UniProtKB/TrEMBL annotation:
This is Phosphatase NudJ. Monomer. The keyword Magnesium applies. It comes from Ramlibacter algicola. CDD domains: NUDIX_Hydrolase. One of its GO terms (molecular function) is ribonucleoside triphosphate phosphatase activity. Pfam families: NUDIX. Belongs to the Nudix hydrolase family. NudJ subfamily. InterPro entries: NUDIX_hydrolase-like_dom_sf, NUDIX_hydrolase_dom, NudJ.
Amino acid sequence: MSTRWKPSVTVAAVIEQDGRFLLVEEETRDGLKLNNPAGHLDPGESLPHACAREVLEETAFTFEPTHLVGVYLSRVRKPGDDFTYLRFAFCGRLGDHDPARQLDDGIVRALWMTPDEIRASQARHRSPLLLRCVEDYLAGKRHPLDMVVTDPSVTA
């Protein structure tokens, strides 16, 4: 019997304010990298809730997803690693910042970058989806949150 293949489900936030996007700089095996505030879906949570949690943990900002920007599939192959990610990217309302809150392990800082700065830093992107999600947001891609349904059995 073969093992069933399962991609890693992740969420990401595309947060724009005054022409700049909120990103995180994080330590990785490949050095300091940039990414959207993002992370894995945890058991028992909805996708929008996971996104709000990840933003808080990685940036110390509260966040309320209001729209789905898109759903993305990517694969990372390196020596010894072969991962496929299924990313749900959300945009929404940025809330309060708690400067006393400690950021997740590996997160060096949250920072704001313009689209041109993001495009110019592609060699530092942790995921090829960082820029794609920003570009889709800039193109006006917004889908209602009711496209993402969480059956009550997930949170029960």
